[in-house]
Each structure stands twice: as structure tokens, then as C-alpha cells.
Amino acid sequence: MNQTAAARADAARGAPDFLKIESIRKEYDEVVAVNNVSLAIEQGEIFALLGSSGCGKTTLLRMLAGFEVPTAGRIVLDGQDITALPPYERPINMMFQSYALFPHLTVYDNIAFGLKREGMPKAQIAERVEQMLDLVQLKPYAKRKPHQLSGGQQQRVALARSLAKRPKLLLLDEPMGALDRKLRERTQIELVHILRQVGLTCVIVTHDQEEAMTMADRIAVMREGRFLQIGTPSEVYENPKNRFVADFIGSVNLFDGELVVDEPHYCEIQTAECLFHVGHGVEGKQGMNLTVALRPEKISLEPGWQDLPYNAVQGTVAARSYMGSYTAYEIELPSGRRLRVTVTNVDRYEEPYELGVRVTAHWMPSAPVVIVE
Amino acid sequence: MLRRPWLPPGRWFVIGVPEFFLFVFLLLPFLILLKISFSHADAVGVGFEPLISWLEEGTLSIKLHFDAYLSVMQDDVYLLTYLSSVGYALLTTLLCLVIGYPFAYFLAQSFPTLRPVMLMLIMLPFWTPFLIRIYAWKNILDANGLLNQFLLWAGIVDEPLQLMFTKFSFMVGMVYGYIPFMILPLYSNLVKLDRRLLEAAADLGARPWQRFWLVTVPLSREGILAGSLLVFIPAVGEYVIPELLGGISILNIGRMMWNEFFINLDWQRAAAVTMLMVLIILFPIWLFNRYQMRLMEARR
């Protein structure tokens, strides 16, 4: 079954405009919740809408589900304009944040609910529900009521229920929101595995960047009703288009500076702290103001103050937190600002830098990225 | 080891006051009636013979007279009256449910700021005495009452309809009198309904009517049961409404008890009639309690 599913997923791929969102806008009274966003999602793709609360991601998801009607714009799924369709006529199913399992129905009847509405014959329903219970490994729990299940089991029932009708598009609203951390990490991988197996196109809404990065093929970072950047997890992390994205995804040190050397394969930027030698060219002209983003894990520390021509700063250790797999430092620079640095703990016996110790922080030309915007 | 949770010191007092009230005004009269139903009037004719007495030879004598119960069971009129009262109470409950459910539903759906006002409107009639409110219906349903005047004016009828002292006027009064007891528990249940469940149902392909029947109604089961009990139980023994709006053609236990107590002055039989009515009412209460216990156990 795995193979056919994989084959199906492969065959399914390649329809680049499977879901098309065209200039969608949603206004509530005076507030613009979603501001003219457009997006094309490939068939079989897992896509994440990432942003903090109030950024419009949930409104966009609810418009896909049909619970909200866009003020303007079109939603086209598999060639069919579904903008005006009520939720019960859309080939779309959603897994709700709170799961929204029917408390008066058994696990079996919860999963069968959508199939019965389709008027599917009883025997076929039974077969499909069995299949779904198998998929989420809940076969022994078919006769239980939702309140007799743990949070993780409830989540899997909700998933089975949303998959049972074989929707063209699956929507996940904060799928891990109600699970504790350990369970969340395991479930994320499990969930992606199931989605790939079924070969579904899927849109996830989340405020948790780790969740988005673990699960999604592509991420759209949202803020104030707009997409700030759309890209693969590594694109969004390593090539943030603007300060907000750089800051929102992971931890970052941002420096404002001036472009002094601009060559096709490298550029140099003078900031208040040091000269940055960056291993990629930028589109711009000399003297323009830019921002350099530097991730804490891409910085190395050396004891003592060393004089290097570029890509290095001197400072003293101002704060330190031991996190097990790595140690996070804050290095106070002569200008007074603090540089965030993380050091992976590869050696069990390595002595950490003490507070107040003088260190030099340095990095490779391939470490920083220039943000033009 | 489990420690007992801290309990405020006034707890027993707070629980004790209503318990005491119920003991004095409900349980005690009930026990007195129970005793009367099994005993004969004493020689003087003022009180009743004791059920339990010491005889001189050191024998404890318990004497229970079942004649009142036997006479009640042998005479068809009592059975018919019980059946009729239960039947009308069931009809009242059904009508209250059919009218009250949509009412409670839209109340629960309305804007939160509007709800207190609407609830107030339901409660407002309670500020006038029950008797007066029922009496007011006479002015509406009489031969020259408001309703007939309107029907005549509108040309729908040529001569006034006989509405008073019919099943119609009786049911109007019963539904009017008891509908708040249906609406309030239904409302408090429906207002808690998780709207996301309705969205989930819509998402899975349920049309509005299906959502109502498959999600809203089953989830308001407890409200329906509570409201129905609150209407049914007092409706069985209702006295004022059948007396003022029902007329003699309607067989009713409430009025029968009144007649036995205060017209026939046969307290023993009256007490027996009352005890049998309590038995009839206890049955649905027992069913409801069992259902609730099961529900609570299921939730644990």
C-alpha cells in the first residue's frame, strides 16, 4: 500500500496551480484581516501559514474552509472556483485546533460522520472507517467516546475524521497546539508521514516556527494580513527577505550598515561594530544602507582579543545559559550592544567561557546574509 | 495519603438551612399525609388513630388500613383522572418543548448584549402573581374577550367562539404558565454549545438542518430532559389552571384532591390519592437521576 500511495503522491505532483488564491481580501468593519494575498500551491504539497496571533493566517484558513466569505478575490481548487461554495459543498476538510470531536458520538461515528452525509453505503463506510482507524492506529478505540481518550488519541481521531472523506485539500489549524512538547515532536513527524502516505495537499496554520519547519514543504510568513515571504524552510531561514522574517524565524543578530564594496561574488558592509565580508553579491549601489543578519549558531568564539581585518568583533561574556545540547552566550561589544552566540557542546569536558572573560567572536563569509529591504 | 480539602466553617450552616426548610415544609407534611392515608379517624372524629400502639399485654400493634387505597383503585374515576392528568401534563410538556426550543435556540444565538434583555422579558411575568396572570386569560378568551372581538372584527367568525372551559383554553393556560420552566434550562444548555462543533459538522458535509438534528439536538439532551421534568412534574398536579381555565369537563388530579380534602372531607382517601400521585411523579424523576448519574460516571 505504501508504494501505491507513494506512486499516487508522485503522480499527483506536478499540478503547480492545484490551489490558487487570487488577491484574497477580508475586511471586518474597519479592520483588514487579510490584505490582497495571492498564492499557488502544488498538488501534494504541505504548505504552512506562519505568523503570530492576529496576522490573518486563521482568517485565510477559514476562508479556504468556507466559514468566512472573502470581501474580494477568488479561491480556485483543482480548476473549480469555490469562493462562494458553502463549507458543506467543498471538497475540503479541516482538522480543528480544539479537534471539535462530537462528544456524543463514538470514535467510529465521529469518523463516519462525513461519509454518512455523502450517502455512502453502510458496508463501504465500515470499510473506510476501518482503514482510517488503521492509519492512525486507533483500532481498539473505535467504540470509545472522545472524552475517554488522551489528548494525543483525540488528535488522531480528528485527523482520521478529516481524512476519511479523502478531501482534495486538508486544512490543519494549529494541529499540535494542545499537545505537550515531547508528544508534539513525535506527532509532527508521524503526521507528515501519514500525509505523504495519502498524498494529500495540505495547508497548516501555526504560530510555531519549529512546527512549520518540521512539517511543511513551503512556508508563508504572514504579518498584518500580508505574506512577507514564501519559501522552503531553509530559504526562509537562510535567506530572509526582510528584518521581520529574519527576526521571527529563529534567533538573529541584526546590524545596520553601509555598502562599501559591491562585487558580483562578494560584498563588504561597514557597520558600527565591524566590517562584514559577505560571500554573496547584492543588487545595490555603493553607499546605500543595508542590514546584515547573522545567526547565533554561525558565530565561533575564541579566547582573548584578536585583531582580524573583518568578520570579527571583540567583547566580554555578559550572560550564559547552558541548554544541554548547546550553550547560549551573550557577548557585550564595546558599543554596548550584545551579540547572541550559541556554541554546540560537542565535548563533554569542555570548559565554558566564564562571565566577564574577553573573547573574540568571528564567522565565515558564508555566515551572514544581507537584507536589502 | 489524601488530605481532606479545606472546608469553610459555615458549610454545614449553609447546607443546613435549606435542608431544614425542606424537612419542615416538605418531608414532615408528606409523612403526616402518608400516615393519614393508612389510618382511620379516631372516635372523636378530630384526629386519626395512631398506626403504632402498645397494647397492655406488652404487644406492639401496627395497624395499617388499606381501604382508602383499595377504594381508589376500585373506582374507575380515579384511574381515568390519573391518566387524564398525566396525558395533559405530557401534552403540555410536548407543546412547551416544541414552542420553547426554537425560542431558547434563538435566544442563545442572539447577540450576547441582547440576551439579558430577552431573558428579562421571559422572567418579567413572574413579577405578577400567578393567579392574576391566569385570570387575565379569561379576559382574552371569554365570549366577549379580546380574541373573540378581534375575530369578529376581522370577519373570520360570525359569532363568538366558545373558547373558555375547553381543552384549548386549558392548554393555552398550561403552556403559558409552564413555558419559562422549559426555556430557561434549554437556554442555559444551548448557550454553552460549542459552535466549533457546528463548524466541524458543516465542514464534514452536514447541511444546516442536519447540523441541527445531528449535533445541536443530541447535545442539548440534558436541557430537554431537565426542562421537560420541570414542566411535567408540576403540570401533573396543577390545580389553579384547570380550575380557572379548564372547567369541569377536564379530569384533573389537582382538583380531585381539593374535592376530597375540602368538599368530601375524606382525608384518608385524599391522602391516598396524593400518595399515588407522588408515586407517578417519582418515576420520571428516578429515571432522570439514573440518567444523570450514568452521565457523570461516563465523564469521570
Tags for this entry?
heterodimer, A: 373 residues, alpha+beta, Rossmann fold, OB fold (Dihydrolipoamide Acetyltransferase, E2P), six-stranded mixed beta sheet, five-stranded antiparallel beta sheet, 9 helices, 20 strands, 25% helix, disordered N terminus, B: 300 residues, mainly alpha, MetI-like fold, 2 domains, two-stranded antiparallel ribbon, 13 helices, globular
Written overview of the protein:
- The complex is a heterodimer of chains A (373) and B (300).
- Chain A has 2 domains: 2-91 and 167-243, P-loop containing nucleotide triphosphate hydrolases (Rossmann fold, 3-Layer(aba) Sandwich); 251-371, OB fold (Dihydrolipoamide Acetyltransferase, E2P).
- In chain A, 25% of the residues lie in helices and 33% in strands.
- Chain A has helices spanning 2-12, 57-65, 107-117, 122-135, 151-163, 181-198, 209-215, 233-238, 243-248, and strands spanning 19-28, 31-41, 46-50, 72-77, 80-81, 92-95, 169-173, 201-206, 218-223, 226-231, 253-262, 267-271, 275-278, 289-294, 300-303, 312-322, 326-332, 338-344, 358-362, 369-371.
- The radius of gyration of chain A is 25 Å and the shape is elongated.
- Chain B has a two-stranded antiparallel sheet with strand order 1-2.
- In chain B, helix 2 crosses helix 13, helix 3 packs antiparallel against helix 10 (221-236) and helix 10 packs antiparallel against helix 13.
- Chain B has helices at residues 11-37, 67-74, 76-109, 115-123, 130-141, 146-154, 167-190, 195-203, 208-219, 221-236, 240-246, 253-263, 267-299; strands at residues 52-55, 59-62.
- Helices cover 70% and strands 3% of the residues of chain B.
- Chain B folds into 2 domains: 12-65, no CATH class; 72-299, MetI-like (MetI-like fold).
- Chain B has 300 residues and is mainly alpha-helical.
- Chain B is globular.
- Classes of the chains: A alpha+beta (373), B mainly alpha (300).
- The A-B interface holds A 65-67, 86-89, 92-94, 96, 98, 100-104, 113-114, 117-118, 145, 147, 161-162, 165 and B 194, 196-197, 199-207, 210, 214-215, 218-219, 221, 298-299.
- Chain B: Belongs to the binding-protein-dependent transport system permease family. CysTW subfamily.
- Chain B: InterPro entries: MetI-like (IPR000515), MetI-like_sf (IPR035906).
- Chain B: This is ABC-type spermidine/putrescine transport system, permease component I.
